[in-house]
Design goal:
heterodimer, A: mainly alpha, 12 helices, 0% strand, B: MetI-like fold, globular
Amino acid sequence: MTAIAPSIPKRRRNTEGRDAWLLVLPALLPVMLFSVYPLVYGVALGFTDAEAGLNVETHFNGLDNYVELAGNGLFWDSFTIGLVWAFSVTVLQFLASLGLALLLNLDLRLRWLARTLALIPWAMPPVIIAIMWQLMLNPSYGPVNRTLAALGLPSGVNWLGESSIALPVVILVGVWAGMPQTTVTLLAGLQSVPAELGEAAAIDGASTWRRFWHVTLPALRPIIVAITTLDLIWNFNSFALVFVLTAGGPGGTTMLPSLFAYNEAFRYGNFGYAAAMGNVMVVLIGAFLFLYLRGQMRRRLQ
Amino acid sequence: MTTMSKAARPRTLGRNRFARPLQYLALLAYMCFLGFPLLFLLTTAFKTPRELQSPDAGLLPQQLNFDNFTSAIDKANLYTAAGNSLLVAVTTTVIVTAVALPAAYALVRFRTRMRAFATGWILLSQVFPFILIIIPLFLLLKNIGLVNTLLGLVLVYAVWSLPFSLWMLQGYVAAIPVELEEASAVDGAGRLKTLLKIVLPLLAPGLVATSLFTFINSWNEFFFALVLIQDPDMQTLPLALARFVGAEGQVQLGQLAAAALLACIPSLVFFLLIQKRLTAGLLSGAVKG
């Protein structure tokens, strides 16, 4: 405090910097130790022959894992299933949520009830959502088959047990489980679109559909890009829901890549090989996101 | 939120005579799709085994029968598991909040480069598949003897909840006008006093929302627990339920539904309480972060 005037700002900045570090350090240290370090370690493991068990020596084996992976048909099957799952769930979720968000944005009665119902799946652990749908789809006691039977329709279908329909059914459950986040985000976006825009277009004689397409949708675009990107990542990496619903069955038709890699690591103990699968997943999904986001950026600039 | 949506209501949508009924029809369809599974879970939990097996039983149970709930609670492992889940979730929340609060404040007020790093890390940590993280974490925790312990689980949850909590909290901090703090400093209050008397009370609602969010995420988490916990005495509620499904749950549908409902209660109560704040908080984190 006795310092001469010109030196004060500099000194103040210095102590502020130190204060900032002191306040951030308790957060930074554990994050470094338990998330940055494991992640780097995990990526590196993908280039080794690491295995579970005591006294097993680990060696770097360069690209051996990837050469082996390239010839592993089961992994690529699982990867394809993962892509089908992630894209279908994301697109259907987006369409269903957009419709619901538009309805919730209108002045309809019972809107509060619909809004609450739309939020509840968010509050449920994925394990419980899976249990609930198992009960729903139970071939003999489940209400789905009972309703079909009451309507005189074929009702003996084992929804989660037949390889031709298990994936679409699981995708439907995925849509149900993920709708809240997308709906809430889109609704918040809709409410921030200035009402004047739509009114001006209406005065100019634009139809409801044209106003939606030319006014609302462009205004929502940044939010749509953000939520579909996040949804895609979350869906591609999702685990618990399908793990409990089908555990990857029947016959591997719902074996998402995350389940496949989990089995490889913790059932067969091939840590290095499983980490290599993780690396392939990151690279491919990262490349896709890069292209998607770059395309959206360009469109925005035009 | 209500006032905003009223202002944004496109009045001319009602011009078409058929629009309104169609809108209600669509809303009804959504409510059935979203609500029916929940209704079914609820009613199943109250049905007796005989009712569940009978082919012509209706949707609603014949009477409110709490046997499923009592026998689900009596199951020793579910009881222990709920205790473990509670312990893990509360400890995680306390740690995360204590660490994230000062850090969020520093990130917003001191405008350091760490803020860009933190935001980048949050996004990056979402992209990486959990398999890449769990193998090294498993090896790391094994080396320090924390596999199969609740402490190890708390550590992992705390670290993986931190980025999101930071993100949410810094949105709330940024919403507090810095002039308030300056005014307090001019009045002669020290930094600590300013933080405790001015910033903390204003931050309280955001702090509550953020810590409840952390609590729910830990309460619901499944994957890390599946890998890190093998000892049945240490398992958390989602783990215990997942094992119950595989074992006797296939036969005891009513008990399974009752246990599932009980496990949802903390998060359901929380979501209904904060459903309005939730949207606002997420958006403020996104916009101002």
